[in-house]
Design goal:
With 333 residues, the protein is of the alpha/beta class. It contains nine helices and 14 strands. It is globular, with a radius of gyration of 20 Å. The structure holds adenosine-2'-5'-diphosphate.
């Protein structure tokens, strides 16, 4: 079988990665329909060596579409994902619009692919990038000992906020190196030479991003009792999210056991050499790879039976485009 595939947001950071992921994984695309805002209509994207003209997203864009991959923000997904589903497409939505809807499965193939087969609205939600890499790393540990409490601090790259955010990081960096002042339009302050908590506010002093990590982790594992204590931080990295994770379990875990469980786990690449400076997973080298890299697996020094991990992955790939395409592969290929 070969499929008609629409990519909504095809000119964006994740949309472009979706196109290259479909190419790289030889997804059977009979026809590609790249969709974006009116601003991009008439521009073209390259797919399988050919130029394909971008069309403006419209209600009628989904006639004959088998698979619609959405990454154009929540407003576009709220309005258009149901229309695409009604037109008969399988919709995989990378925005946060549908993630908490009880009738929309939230899927990471390595953890809960079965959920993708029950989709009352015809929509499947792709989780938040930080959540995806964390649950891929924690899945084998959860199966063995049951997750009780996760304390996670993120170090998130600018590409997670879109193409314009990366451009702003680079321009601010150039301006400051030249002795000038950084201009901030995408970020609330300079991200160059700085760290920011730049997400919208949630509840209780937490950002929306932090609350996503709590809710989405529980939904994906199907366990509302899992405690998640998140702090999300944006760092001046172009691409690749990193996370320091402390995990407590329902029975004691050791670093040695965790390494045994993680070695060869689906989607995971374990880096378990002895500690040497720089010998850990890094965003610069993880960028452009499919794996979730796990390193620095240590017994916690203060909490017996708990462990600490350092987890790095390409947020545009496994954190977004690759996860969406993997779900599609399970359903269509
Ligand atoms: P456009 O390039 O025409 O603005 P990023 O996350 O890198 O900023 O990309 C966002 C993607 O979503 C782009 O492809 C953008 O198209 C698209 N997009 C944003 N808003 C809409 C909208 N209302 N309708 C269709 N596409 C949209």
């Amino acid at each position: 079988m070969s499929y008609t595939v629409a990519v909504v947001g095809a000119t964006g950071a994740v949309g472009r990665e979706m196109l290259s992921t479909l190419e790289r994984r030889n997804f059977s695309v009979m026809r590609l329909i790249p969709l974006a805002s009116a601003r991009s209509a008439g521009k073209s994207v390259t797919f399988l060596g050919k130029q394909v003209v971008v069309q403006e997203l419209r209600p009628e864009s989904f006639a004959g579409v088998d698979l619609a991959l959405f990454s154009a923000g929540s407003a576009a997904s709220l309005e258009y994902a149901p229309l695409a589903a009604r037109a008969g497409a399988i919709v995989i939505d990378n925005s946060s619009a549908w993630r908490t809807d009880a009738d929309v499965p939230l899927v990471v193939p390595e953890v809960n692919i079965k959920a993708a087969f029950n989709r009352p609205r015809g929509i499947i939600a792709n989780p938040n990038c930080s959540t995806i890499q964390m649950v891929v790393a924690l899945k084998p540990l959860h199966d063995a000992a049951g997750l009780k409490h996760i304390v996670v601090s993120t170090y998130q790259a600018t590409s997670g906020k879109g193409h314009n955010a990366v451009v702003e990081l680079l321009e601010q960096t150039k301006a400051m190196l030249a002795g000038g002042a950084p201009r901030s339009e995408v970020f609330p302050a300079s991200i160059a030479f700085n760290l920011l908590c730049d997400w919208k506010g949630g509840e209780g002093g937490y950002s929306e991003e932090e609350l996503k990590m709590v809710r989405e982790t529980r939904k994906i594992f199907g366990d509302e009792s899992i405690g998640v204590s998140p702090t999300t931080v944006r760092v001046p990295v172009v691409n690749g999210h990193s996370e320091a994770i402390h995990v407590q379990f329902h029975r004691p875990m050791t670093a040695d056991e965790a390494k045994r469980l993680l070695r060869g786990a689906p989607g995971v690449e374990l880096m378990d050499g002895p500690y040497v400076p720089g010998g850990h997973p890094q965003p610069l080298t993880a960028s452009g790879s499919d794996a979730v890299f796990v390193g620095r697996v240590r017994d916690d020094l203060a909490v017996p039976g708990a462990i600490n991990l350092w987890v790095v992955s390409d947020n545009l790939r496994k954190g977004a485009a690759l996860n969406a395409v993997q779900i599609a592969e399970h359903l269509l290929q």
